[in-house]
Design brief:
The protein is built from ten helices and 23 strands. It has 416 residues and is of the alpha/beta class. The strands form five sheets. Strands 1, 3, 4, 5, 19, 20, 21, 22 and 23 form a nine-stranded mixed sheet that branches. The longest helix has 16 residues. It starts with a strand and ends in a 9-residue tail after the last strand.
């Protein structure tokens, strides 16, 4: 191997408007940074209304886009898209099929949705720069069962949908709280049939009758302390990891992508289960792990010389102004990262460019509401200092200048 290689990664792209003709100097600075990448990657946080049609599958937080936004992403330099996320099924199976058509026709490296479960689990593979690149993209929910792809059975047709990492959320409560819930269920005459009604369109999950109770669709488990408990189905995880192992065995550069909305109470904190799964992806042969879901910048870790971006926040975030829950400043701040590999296949460094998208109520122009801009010195320093503080907890040190950052690994890791 003699050629260097660069992968540029960004926050998620919830894009509804064509922004390709925006000429703001600070936006163009972001695009110049992106175009260093042989791979320029984002999560397309939407679904396409195209020739297959489609119908809204939910109320609030419903999003879709016209095919032209894909041209806009391509014009910005993106050539790799994760499609597994909570908006991928907003137009139902028809939207999945239209999105596949439009992404295929433009030649993006992509993964994360499919015509059935087997198709959705297929990774994307394409030669980009000096490497064969494999992309595995999965969604861990929470989401209704009917948004995930399903294979044909003797009694059921196939369902187009999202590639799923099966997870189950339980709420841990002490014994005294658990007994109160059991007593309340008895007073309400809660029956298994009634619980089944309230979990639709999902089926009630299995549980331990001695230590767990399904209280109208939420499982509570008897534990020592109160808290959320997220568990990954081991068979589901193994299916995804085996795809990564096969790609790594071919010598591909493997990107593992995870989307989820199982956020911590402090949404810039990294859930333990995500860190465990990210490390499992690297152990299976992935060279880079990227995650989105929480709309904020979390931390980065280097594990066995591979970058683990636990949450890159937002890059494009075209949400309605009436959704005031996104007003926190950290929602509109992120970084773009360029992961550089030397000719021997080792991670040489990661360059970081902080970006900002002004919140609706403070934006000075339509440009600021629609595209990421290179952060000015004060904002850049603030973003990088917070990112560095969170990442330091994972053993990652970030060198900070006035308007950029850099990570130098202590030991490289070869791929290929």
């Amino acid at each position: 191997m003699t050629n260097s290689f660069c992968v540029a990664v960004t926050g998620q792209s919830l894009i509804k408007n064509d922004v390709a003709d925006v000429a703001d100097e600070r936006f163009l600075q972001v695009l110049d940074f992106l175009r260093q990448g042989d791979v320029v990657f984002t999560n397309f946080e939407s679904t396409i209304l195209g020739r297959h049609g489609g119908w809204p599958t939910k109320g609030k937080y419903f999003d879709y886009a016209r095919p032209a936004v894909l041209d806009s992403l391509q014009a910005m330099g993106f050539n790799a898209l994760a499609l597994a996320n909570n908006h991928a099924f907003d137009l139902g199976s028809a939207g999945v099929l239209s999105t596949l058509d439009e992404v295929w026709s433009r030649g993006f490296l992509h993964a994360g949705i499919g015509r059935d479960e087997a198709d959705a689990m297929q990774p994307g593979r394409q030669r980009l720069g000096a490497r064969e690149v494999t992309l595995v993209a999965i969604d861990a929910g929470p989401g209704p069962d009917n948004m995930y792809a399903e294979n044909r059975t003797p009694t059921r047709p196939p369902r187009p949908g999202v590639n799923r990492l099966k997870t189950l959320r339980r709420i841990g409560v002490p014994d005294e709280d658990f007994r109160r819930l059991v007593g309340l269920a008895e007073q309400l005459q809660m029956t298994p049939v009634e619980v089944g009604n309230y979990t639709q369109p999902n089926d009630p999950p299995p549980m331990d009758a001695d230590s767990e109770i399904n209280f109208y669709g939420t499982i509570f488990r008897k534990t020592d302390t109160r808290g959320r408990l997220i568990e990954i189905d081991s068979d589901s995880a193994e299916g995804q990891l085996s795809v990564m192992r096969r790609a790594a065995a071919r010598g591909d550069f493997v990107i593992a992508y995870l989307h989820h909305h199982h956020w911590e109470p402090g949404w810039q904190d990294v859930p333990d289960w995500v860190r465990d799964f990210a490390r499992s992806c690297i152990d299976a042969g992935a060279d880079l792990f990227v995650s989105h879901g929480a709309p904020v910048l979390q931390a980065v870790e280097l594990y066995r010389g591979a970058p683990l971006f636990y949450g890159l926040g937002n890059f494009l975030f075209h949400v309605p102004a009436e959704e005031t829950e996104w007003s926190a400043p950290e929602v509109w701040q992120s970084i773009v990262a360029a992961c550089r590999y030397d000719g021997s296949g080792n991670l040489a460094c990661i360059d970081l460019l902080p970006v900002v998208i002004s919140a609706h109520e403070t934006a000075r122009s339509a440009t600021e509401r629609s595209v990421p801009l290179a952060a000015t010195d004060d904002a850049s320093h603030h973003i990088l200092q917070g990112f560095a503080a969170r990442s330091r907890k994972f053993g990652t040190e970030i060198e900070i200048s006035r308007s950029s950052g850099r990570i130098l690994p202590t030991a490289g890791r070869k791929f290929g």
